[in-house]
Amino acid sequence: MPFQSQVPPGELSEKWKQYRSSMPLVAPNNKRRLEVIIVGTGLAGGAAAATFGELGYKVKVFTFHDSPRRAHSIAAQGGINAAKNYQNDGDSVYRLFYDTIKGGDYRSREANVHRLAEVSVNIIDQAVAQGVPFARDYGGLLANRSFGGVQVSRTFYARGQTGQQLLLGAYQSLSRQISLGNVELFNRHEMIDLVMEDGKARGIIARNLLTGETERHAAHAVVLGTGGYGNVFYLSTNAMNSNGSAAWRAVKQGAYMANPCFTQIHPTCIPVSGEYQSKLTLMSESLRNDGRVWVPKSQDDAAAIREGRKTGLDIAEGDRDYYLERRYPAFGNLVPRDVASRAAKTACDEGLGVSPTGLAVYLDFDAAITRYGKSKAHSQNEHNADKNRIRELGVAVIEEKYGNLFEMYEKITGEDPYVMPMKIYPAVHYTMGGLWVDYNLQTNIPGLFAIGEANFSDHGANRLGASALMQGLADGYFVLPYTIGTFLSQEIRNPQVDPDGPAFMEAEAKAQERVNRLMGINGSKSPETFHRELGKIMWEYCGMARNAEGLQKGRRMIRELREEFWRDVYVPGQIKEYNPELEKALRVADFLELGELMMLDALDRAESCGGHFREEYQTEDGEALRRDDEFAYVSAWEWDDTDPILHKEELIFENVELKTRSYK
Amino acid sequence: MENMKLKLRIWRQGGKYPKGQFVEYPLDGVNDHMSFLEMLDVLNEKLISQKEDPIAFEHDCREGICGTCSLVINGYPHGPMQQTTACQLHMRNFRDGETITIEPWRSRAFPIVKDLVVNRDAFDRIIQAGGYISIDTGQAQDGNAIPIEKDQASHAFDAATCIGCGACVAACPNASAMLFLGAKVSHLAQVPQGKVEAETRVQRMVHQHDVEGFGQCSNITACEAECPKGISVEHIARLNRQYIASTIGSEKVAN
Q1: Residues 238-257 of A with CB under 8 A from B
Q2: Structurally, how many domains does chain A consist of?
Q3: Which of A44, A323, A359, A627 lies most in the core, judged by the most C-beta atoms within 10 Å?
Q4: Do both A603 and A484 map to the same domain?
Q5: How far is CA A226 from the centre of its chain?
Q6: With 0-12 CB in 10 A as exposed, 13-18 as middle and 19+ as buried, what is A4?
Q7: Which of A428, A460, A486 is the last residue of a domain?
Q8: ipTM for the predicted complex
Q9: What is the pLDDT of residues A140-195, one digit of tens each?
Q10: Do A423 and A440 fall within a single domain?
Q11: Exactly one of A216, A288, A320, A337 is catalytic; which is it?
Q12: Domain boundary residue among A428, A454, A479?
């Protein structure tokens, strides 16, 4: 198997420019003959499908949703980073590159990250040209805000719905290509296997979710923009149908899974309220621009709050511990996500949690309301404004900035966050790990590409806020449309791939057999039951803090659960009909293997870095202890039912010095 | 409240053509902190454990933004709460012992897939007809080269916030999709980038709307009342102005 990063030579800042100008191209007459399958219509897949259509390739795009606009990118709230330096605050391509490498705890590839920072500026231009209604200042120019882990304002946003607006931009461009006949849309189709011919990815087997029929689709190359696998934890901020199956089907065909244990636990989510809980809701990181995180200093106060004898408002200023500001004065409430999440866990482990379950901390806007209120009163020449008036003005400012988030919080919890401080707790949000790809975003399977959250490439062990949208769109609009040429230029002599060829017939038969086997078990437990059980194991043993003993135990438990699943799952309904439970069962079956690989990867990585915190490896004051001498590598796993095989891609840092990450 | 008892009247229909009917399901042990869809999850898990056919309903993000959920609850699209999608609706808004009626969107242009699931492909085809700005990747100029007045950008956003759920159609006695259509036309007409193609866009999109079998708008404004994102009918007014101007004052004809 080939296993090379394909990073081009040259100076870091020149690599992409030179490579782009020298890479092989495909002539327009040949593009018309070359077929590309894209699975997924989120920011990465949607942007790629639109751009490939514009370039003249024959594109087939697949989504399991009823419409491409429903992909989970739609739910991203806070914003998108770009090194525009519109605020004149010292930002640059290099600084965005450096922040991302450092934020990822030095576990990503320099050249990929630098390219990401370079194209970030083009994304904003493209989105504006598509009509995306970004927030603007009074002069009519684009507004920015700050996100965690950085000291500049480089985040562009559209209220709290940035992902929605960017996705609709990509969706509209895609819709245009569909109407022009350049792209064919297969909605309500789920990829259930990858088809290989002569060692190359040549197509997919898809299940038509309306009829349950399987279909064979062939192409010269296959692109997966199918998102992350956070739902392996059952409870996460991902949409209910987000899943890792397309990527996992590729892994089963020999694609390498890279850094699967790198999971992002987002610090500001609405806490779990009960056993029936189906998903967790994120409160955007942008809230940490203005919200202050705290718990009571004393366990007695915390206990009183948990038992309902006191509320957050009863705790005097001097009895509150603003622990992020105390522990990390340089970044305060805007430390990166992994650091903020661990600090919340530490506070709750010490008995200072403030919800009935003991698993919540406060995010308090009182100081911001007063600050904004005073400023507003001043600008309106209301110099005698009293406390109530200042509050009123301050609330109006906060409402303008975060109104939809506050409303969402109130709908879910029934509490008014303008009065009571918000309660938040960390939850699984994003997976930095994903399919291993080289500089061209090609997996180790020739002809199979992975983009967006589905690949591992840019975020190392921890992703910075507002960088997921950036990476998805960078891959889809500005990277893959070039780099796929390195593969497709070699394909111009190959005729159309035959979807009725033996490889396709065999793959289809195998996929059908798997579905038949699942339906035939006729056991006693629903797919949901197994999924919840898996989630509990993952959270307990592979969550915010991990150790060798727990990971070994977790791996054993998953194997047992998997065995039970294939013996006792019950999938209602028929194969050849609209059957959401069957869809779920197929996804859970894949999660039951992926979860094991995550445990194994976390066990192998005997260091703490980013979102991966091994209890055995921490400094005296509880910070992550990285071990660069032994672990400065990307783990790329080749799946095997008994013993997956680890391949290592060594990470070479030529431009940044590996330092202990400090936000103090 | 930990143990609400409910009676659910749910529309069951095997597919587009079979005749549907209401079926009653009693459900105990509902916690008022549950979301409405979590309550349906509990019912479905119960049905599956009894080896009965679970109720098909669509959902995904469960945070009110993807536009997938599509339930008419007690006669209201997305239920009785204003500016709230069904997935954001919580059981604390219902009474213990209440009978709750749950139906799918009902419109000729949204055929039933199963039970509470409908096919909304027509919306995609309306956008494909012209709901975009024709710009290829890489053609854009610098983002700050086109200043847009703050309030105008904000008004464009008010239209762009549409989640494409179809509640406007479900609410309308004529099953008109003019609010969906108006939101997109109005969004793109209010940013300078979208003005170039404004005339052909509105004509093509209105034409597709009619082809899909959606009804005509007669200014009942139930769509605005039921829109989970609170999109105003003023966007329909802007659409109408654009449409009239593009047919009378222009030589552009939809193709």
Answers
A1: 239-241
A2: 2
A3: A44
A4: yes
A5: 11
A6: exposed
A7: A428
A8: 0.98
A9: 999 998 888 888 999 999 988 999 999 999 999 999 999 999 999 999 999 999 99
A10: no
A11: A337
A12: A428
How many angstroms separate the Cα of A600 from the Cα of each of A251, A430, A462, A629, B125? 15, 19, 19, 20, 46
Q: Provide the chain B residues 69-98 that lie in CB contact (below 8 A) with chain A.
A: 81, 83-84, 88-90, 92
A549: which residues sit within 8 A by CB, 6+ positions away? none
CA angle B209/B215/B218 to nearest 5° reads 115
pLDDT single digits (tens) B95-136: 999 999 999 999 999 999 999 999 999 999 999 999 999 999
CA end-to-end distance (rounded Å), chain B: 58
Residue A583 located in a structural domain = yes
Domain range for A325 is 265-428
Please say whether the beta carbons of A448 and A221 come within 8 A. Answer: yes
Which chain A residues contact residue B89 at CB under 8 A?
Answer: 411
Overall number of domains in chain B: 2
**Position A121 in a domain:** no
Tokens 């591992």 found at: A456
Cα–Cα distance for residue pair A559/A577, rounded to 1 Å:
31
Q: Are residues A406 and A499 in the same domain?
A: no
**Per-residue confidence (pLDDT) for residue A382, from 0 to 100:** 94
Mean pLDDT of A583-587: 98
Do both A567 and A437 map to the same domain?
Answer: yes
Known catalytic residue: A514? no
Tell me, yes or no, whether B140 lies in a domain. Answer: no
- CB distance A130–B144 less than 8 Å? no
A243 belongs to a structural domain: yes
List the domain range (segments joined by +) for residue B227: 120-134+146-248
